Amino acid sequence: MRILHISDCYLPRLGGIEVQVADLVGKQREAGHTVEVATATPGEPLPGVRRVVAGLPFDLPVHPRGTVHLIRLMTGWRPDVVHVHAGAVSPFAWQGVRAAVRAGLPVVVTVHSMWDPVTSGLYLGLQAAFEWRRWGIAVTAVSEAAARPIRAVAGAGVPVHVVSNGLDVTAWHPEPGRAVPEGERGHSEGAHVVAVGRLAPRKQPVRLLKLLKAARAMVPGTIPMRATIVGEGPARGSMERYLRAQEMDWVSLPGRFTRDQIKELLASADVFVAPAPRESFGLAALEARAAGVPVVARSQSGVADFVRPGKEGLLGHTFDELASSVARLVRDEPLRASIAAHNREVEPIACSWPAVLDGFERCYAEVRASRP
């Protein structure tokens, strides 16, 4: 099958969507498909990557005449399906949708973000202006939580499926002999709480520090506790100031880690925290779950698709419930051990690449069947 992926952002930019799309492209090529990418992100030439760049300030990934360029690309190469990747607002991606519709090609749109009420209102306005519900597209979301607001806007005429983000699950398994069994760990350093993510204001990283402080207050002083927050971003300064003011020297901010470094860190982790309420999926939480670490996350986030309370971790709907869940796992070593053992033994199959590829191929077949 000839597949054209369209994404505002792509390599060499490194972010959740960029890495996920690049991994998907690689897996589809390994499966025997002919795959190309069209992106508005400038960068060095890459095999099978068409850069539609306007040279705007700050390397903004938009193009004022993107639709025209994409129609030319599609009519020349004639893919069997166009797969568009969109965030909350992705002008170039939606130009790709419009171009594919005008070129008469089947279209699947993957929404990688969580629509808030403002975003939903925007797409209702676009429906009134362009009637995109009648374009014959299919939509996928990365989790049930992300799918719900899309379905409310798209209505019955636009199918909205859930296809998880993909992960090479076996690559995150603890290496034999590396993960120390719970009962054999020394307690001088205490329970190790880990979080991974970009230190951006929208992720509320200072609120994460407040959550850790609240959890620490619920744990007896005789039980040691430490935390490591991996990542880099503009909120780092405010986090460092908060840590100094609260004398939280048991929390470290080591900066950005590679995948291998994160895997090594997770081998020493007892609890992973993913507190963002509007997390559409939570790839870092999935990596921790695949590595055998109990996960604490919001029940209303996409993490709830692969974390069940008491099975793979604990879920909370509010700040207080999250803090209580972290404290409970720090205090309750047998519960920690049972969840960790379950996570090591039971793989998140729905998030594995074979399942993800199968999900997308079913979506491709659906939109291709709907067009002559």
From TrEMBL:
Domain spans labelled Glycosyltransferase subfamily 4-like N-terminal: 15-169
Superkingdom of origin: Bacteria
Domain Glycosyl transferase family residue range list: 192-344
InterPro entries per UniProt: Glyco_trans_1, Glyco_trans_4-like_N, Glycosyltransferase_grp1
Keywords, ordered alphabetically: Glycosyltransferase, Transferase
Species: Microtetraspora fusca
Protein's recorded name: Glycosyltransferase family 4 protein
EC number: 2.4.-.-
PANTHER family: SULFOQUINOVOSYL TRANSFERASE SQD2 (PTHR45947)
Origin organism lineage: Bacteria, Bacillati, Actinomycetota, Actinomycetes, Streptosporangiales
GO molecular function, one term: glycosyltransferase activity
